[in-house]
Amino acid sequence: MTEFSNRVEQVSISGIREVFEAAGDDAINLGIGQPDFPTPEHARAGAVDAIEAKKTDAYTSNKGTRELRDAISATYDREYDIAVDPADIIATSGGSEALHLVLEAHVDPGQEVIFPDPGFVSYDALTQIAGGTSKPVPLRDDLTLDPATVEEAITDDTAVFVVNSPANPTGAVQSKDDIREFARIADEHDVLCLSDEVYERIIFEGKHYSPLEFAQTDNVVVVSACSKTYSMTGWRLGWVVGSNRRIERMLRVHQYGQACASAPAQYAAEAALRGPQDAVEEMVEAFERRRDVVLDGLEDAGLEVPKPSGAFYVMPKVPEGWCEEVLDRDVIVVPGDAFGANGDGYARLSYATGMEELKEALEIIDTATRAVQ
Ligand SMILES: Cc1ncc(COP(=O)(O)O)c(C=O)c1O
Q1: In terms of domains, do 115 and 72 share one?
Q2: pTM for the full model?
């Protein structure tokens, strides 16, 4: 009988779903991993116009339309002064597919992938699916990833290390010095740095830096997406940027697994990237106001909370039994260990939900925290 592959048997469905299923219908959901804003009108119009002009009926080029890749390249130039050749970009089905391409193309069975713990759930799962060995590493007390920790974890078997700034689930933003160090480590150890930058524009303090700006070799690949920046998670449009030889290898996986990213989504993404950016600014301002309210609320409840500078998550330290107390009162939060063993003793709260609901949730959290302490 045909059994299942060992690779797929290593992976289980994300622990986040269990929390959602346990919650009542009227629960306040602080578990959400997507912005609660509409996709900008001009992005939708980009897709609608392309559909009506019959531009979306056929496959696009495997890498994505030239116009979209030009728009992505222009964005790197505009935002970070980084020159990216449009030939060195593959448009993907969300950042998720881009992460998959990077690992499939660079990890051999038994090779190690180093990633932050707590960290985004896909790093572990996609490493297993690529046949690799997961090497989760702990974070600093402020929930950033110490380049020294990564450097110590590198062995002869390391294929990739993952950097994610701003980060899910912590909201932490790495400093410029850290990012420069990650680039140096990739260069000196000749190991690939996978920089997951899907939250690159959602940043409140400081500035976003990419290891791509500092690397002297081609040992950095960047994954990003329209998903969070333009509230376009449903459109499924992301990309990967890398050197030509790496893109050529990743294209093999993409060509046979996906052919091309969805054409309507490509046109929407092009319009989002080329059009006015005020929707992004307004969303980031709203997230910052909510972040401040949530931080105050959690601190008033007596919790220790590393201050997040980006994304839309906060990760307080919580006492034993806290998540259950909060969930019992119909506020959905995700236990930190859903993001790795070192997430134990923390919880992830997303503030991608309206201010009134957030305030209500904070009052409930205050009561729940007193009940458990
Ligand atoms: C850190 C991180 N990387 C990648 C992704 C995948 O994003 P997408 O929806 O574009 O596939 C997510 C989604 O939550 C994420 O949090």
Answers
A1: yes
A2: 0.97
